[in-house]
Design goal:
four-stranded antiparallel beta sheet; single chain; Beta-lactamase
């Protein structure tokens, strides 16, 4: 692993220079990490990718347009569940997904689950709730036990469970005009490190496992450094079966959906193949409308990108070459010429 370029400040006010092991809110790359935890729970037989998720939940997850159709983790992880970002997915601690998802705006009323792709952040609070219901543990604790500790990552969701060292080194996100967008910590923890209740309370004893799933921001709230991001890329490329079996890595990276011109929203050719929490770029024999040859070499890459709070990020691996890249940029304007978030997504 080598660091090819780094410049700027982790915080302008303190003047602290940016370092490769400084943690940053990495946005939608978080989804890949959630998928890793799901696969670990599958391997320990606590979850089944193709079971009706109502087997785990004590509430009913169904598309109101297709109330008899089961929804699976495979469909949720690959954005084929029918959920849409038509409602707020950053729900307060006292919100209940069961109630929120009764809103028809949260669903695709035209397609059954498994029939159509549409990238939606809302899938991931639902996945987090399923993980909690299956294990009896909070999402943040699951991530620590299943992913961060085994891979020796100094990472956390929404700063909770991060060490004081990570708080001291937190990267502040700025808008292009210099305004603070997020995480101006300057060595001090936030008063509330999760999404609070609707009345502003931050009492985690009020949190109900398997009911909300959103307070740790599973769709994009991972704080991790570029160095630790690269470690995960190396794990994928080694594929040695130590952290996850080769079969599990293959299930994640093999496309569960491939764009054929009419089976989903490619967002102008950006999404053309997607695995389980893994975006696949430049798949061979892809549709002519695809514009996902991000690296210009027509080789297939696995990974994920992120964009939020004027940050763009990515973790991408090329398995044949055994190489990859992990990066983030801050203060990125919305009309950045680099285009989509390979170089949006939360």
């Amino acid at each position: 692993m080598s660091v090819s370029a780094i410049q700027g400040f982790s915080n302008r006010t303190t003047g602290r220079a940016l370092m490769p092991d400084d943690p940053v809110r990495i946005a939608s790359v978080s989804k890949l990490f959630v998928a890793l935890a799901v696969m670990r729970l599958v391997e320990s037989e606590q979850l089944n990718l193709d079971a009706d998720v109502n087997d785990y939940l004590d509430w009913n997850l169904r598309n109101p347009a297709f109330p008899d159709d089961p929804i699976t983790l495979t469909q949720l992880l690959s954005h084929q569940s029918g959920l849409r970002d038509g409602i707020n997915y950053a729900l307060p601690m006292d919100a209940l997904l069961e109630q929120e998802l009764r809103d028809p705006k949260a669903w695709d009323s035209q397609h059954r689950s498994g029939e159509n792709f549409a990238y939606a952040n809302l899938n991931f609070p639902v996945i987090a709730a399923i993980m909690e219901a299956a294990t009896g543990k909070r999402f943040d604790q699951i991530m620590q036990g299943e992913v961060f500790k085994p891979l020796k990552l100094n990472a956390c969701f929404n700063w909770i469970n991060c060490r004081d060292t990570e708080i001291e080194h937190a990267v502040t996100l700025y808008r292009p005009n210099g305004d603070v967008a997020r995480d101006d910590l300057r060595g001090k923890r936030e008063a509330c490190e999760v999404v609070p209740t609707s009345d502003g309370s931050c009492d985690l004893s009020r949190y109900q496992l398997g009911k909300t799933g959103s307070i740790f921001s599973p769709q994009g709230g991972l704080r991790i450094s570029a160095v630790d991001l690269a470690k995960v890329g190396q794990m994928f490329l080694r594929d040695d079966g130590e952290f996850l079996s080769r079969e599990s890595i293959s299930k994640m990276t093999d496309p569960q959906w491939v764009y054929d011109g009419g089976n989903g929203d490619s967002e102008d050719g950006y999404f053309c193949a997607y695995g389980m929490g893994v975006h696949v770029l430049a798949l061979g024999n892809r549709h002519k409308r695809c514009k996902d040859n991000a690296f210009g070499d027509n080789m297939t890459y696995w990974g994920h990108s992120g964009e939020a709070y004027s940050l763009k990020s990515g973790l991408w691996m090329q398995p044949l070459l055994g190489k990859g890249t992990a990066f983030f940029r801050t203060e990125v304007p919305e009309n950045d010429p680099a285009g989509h978030c390979i170089y949006f997504c939360e």
